[in-house]
Amino acid sequence: MASSTAAEPISPSNTRLGWIGTGVMGQSMCAHLIRAGYTLTVFNRTPSKAQPLLDLGAHQAHSPQALASQSDVVFSIVGYPSDVRSVLLDPTSGVLSGLLPGGILVDMTTSEPSLAVEIAAAAAEKNCHSVDAPVSGGDRGAKNGTLAIFAGGDKDTVHRLEPLFSLLGKVNYMGGSGKGQFAKLANQITIASTMVGLVEGMVYAHKAGLDVGLWLDAISTGAAGSKSLDLYGQRILKRDLDPGFYVNHFVKDLGICLKECQNMGIALPGLALAQQLYVSLKAHGEGNLGTQALILVLERLNNVSLAPAASSS
């Protein structure tokens, strides 16, 4: 089946999909593919997390290797670079030990660019293809199928995957292997400083006696408007700190960014500051909250609270 898809456009009738990692993002992304009619096999280290997808018609595999052996295109979206290495490259249980020649591996985890290059080389040795395609847009983007997808790898392979990517969001081809990861890391750098600006503005507005909700609406259509404001402004006010994207994973991403800055010999002080603020959340045991929980750091620093109960007196 892998050989037939090499010539034909990818469609539910000729392409079997595998998906590794059914967490906050993966759950919704998988559901779009199943609803589009694709045969999909899932693997998750915690099998119960895959149950909603099994209810939709997905099959379950007992290892990444077993999943790959019955898939033409395998997606992965897991936590850390070490997880990526384990599920894709492990010689006995990893995806590449089971993927047939002509198969395509699509890693959507935010990871190290050098690892993406390594995976692409390992895939090529087995006559397979690899694309690094991390995403931005959080849980809402995953649910709505509006993610920004940053793709690195062979251009023709990325183009072939368009029918699948279009179900998840908008794909942006960024260049060769690793370039998708570099694009996502630059995205995270931008988000980090934007989030610092948003929560600082909210604390300032609160301290100045403004109605913070009214203020958010007022600035949203001006030059200070941003996707971060749209996604998280009202969530912060409502004290909805549930993860669309985990603090723990953001700390991981920003750490990779700083490491790459060292490799490039560049100084990004805004990035370094944001990373320290997010590390302080993790130190307070708040790593499993969403990135909007940065408000907690600014509240502690300034001994204020924007929580609804405190502002309704």
Automatic annotation (TrEMBL):
GO molecular function: NAD binding; NADP binding; oxidoreductase activity, acting on the CH-OH group of donors, NAD or NADP as acceptor
All copies of domain 6-phosphogluconate dehydrogenase NADP-binding, residue ranges: 17-173
Keyword rRNA-binding annotated: no
Highest taxon of source: Eukaryota
Gene3D superfamilies named among the record's database cross-references: N-(1-d-carboxylethyl)-l-norvaline Dehydrogenase, domain 2, NAD(P)-binding Rossmann-like Domain
Swiss-Prot/TrEMBL keywords: NAD, Oxidoreductase
Protein name per UniProt: 6-phosphogluconate dehydrogenase NADP-binding domain-containing protein
